[in-house]
Write a structure and sequence with these properties.
Blueprint: E1 2-9, E2 19-26, E3 31-35, H1 42-49, E4 56-61, E5 68-71, H2 84-89, H3 96-108, H4 124-137, E6 142-146, H5 154-169, E7 173-178, E8 190-195, E9 198-203, H6 205-208
Parallel strand pairs: 3-7, 3-8, 5-6, 6-7
Antiparallel strand pairs: 1-2, 1-4, 8-9
């Protein structure tokens, strides 16, 4: 579980705090969505959860030092290797079970035939897949994703959604940011709605729905799985 109490953060160059007195709890193995318009504090909160920024207040994890991976919105910032395989294996123990498991992820992510390919030959969606594979190869306890659907075509977006679903099934805690719920609303257990660095609502979809418009976020156009009804009005299947 992750627990935050009075979590605040300010960038030195900004007059207004980026985050102010955030209080929340996220259960282990859950899928949590950070909602809000650009500039609401979503990326800052993800960086704090990843340990990249130090905030005021309390931030407690169930484990003393959980393995965390943050995937930025731009995959170019995460990729460091020259080839697909080199990037995948960076930072991993170079012994057979670890390497074999990592290479199996490449096949799962439809990159198995591109092991020796230079990373700059990959499409944007393929780079996003490589980033996910690299993060999961490290077997993190916490996976953080900043706008994971941004810039993706429909098949690639579906792939990211399917990966989120698989991660839920194995009990991986996932926190991601977005301002578009069309692909994920039915998967998320806990929503945190941010506006100008403040939490204005959190909880289930039904609990946060009345606050989305003031946070600069719209409700999904329809249920993702063919349910042509407004979100959070019951099962229409």
């Amino acid at each position: 579980m992750i627990r935050a109490k009075n979590l605040s953060f300010s960038y030195p160059e900004d007059q207004r705090p980026a985050l102010t007195d955030l209080n929340f709890q996220i259960g282990r193995g859950s899928l949590c969505c950070l909602l809000g318009a650009n500039g609401s504090g979503k990326t800052t909160l993800l960086r704090i959860l990843a340990g990249l920024l130090r905030a005021e207040g309390e931030l407690c994890f169930a484990q003393a030092s959980p393995t965390r991976r943050l995937l930025p919105q731009n995959p170019e910032l995460y990729i460091l290797g020259a080839t697909v395989e080199e990037d995948l294996l960076l930072g991993l123990e170079q012994r057979s079970p670890v390497v074999d498991k990592a290479l199996a992820l490449l096949k799962q992510f439809d990159l198995g035939d591109k092991r020796e390919q230079p990373v700059h030959y990959l499409s944007f969606g393929e780079k996003r897949k490589l980033c996910l594979a690299s993060a999961l190869a490290a077997e993190p306890e916490l996976l953080l994703l900043d706008e994971p659907f941004a810039g993706l075509d429909y098949p690639s977006a579906l792939f990211v959604r399917e990966n989120m679903t698989r991660n839920k099934e194995i009990g991986l805690t996932q926190i991601f940011s977005t301002h578009d719920l069309d692909l994920t609303a039915d998967l998320v257990e806990h929503f945190i709605v941010l506006r100008q660095g403040l939490i204005i609502a959190q909880g289930s979809g039904a609990e946060v729905a009345p606050y989305l418009e003031q946070a600069g976020t719209r409700q999904p156009c329809q249920w993702y799985l063919g349910r042509h009804a407004p979100l959070w009005q019951g099962d229409q299947s």
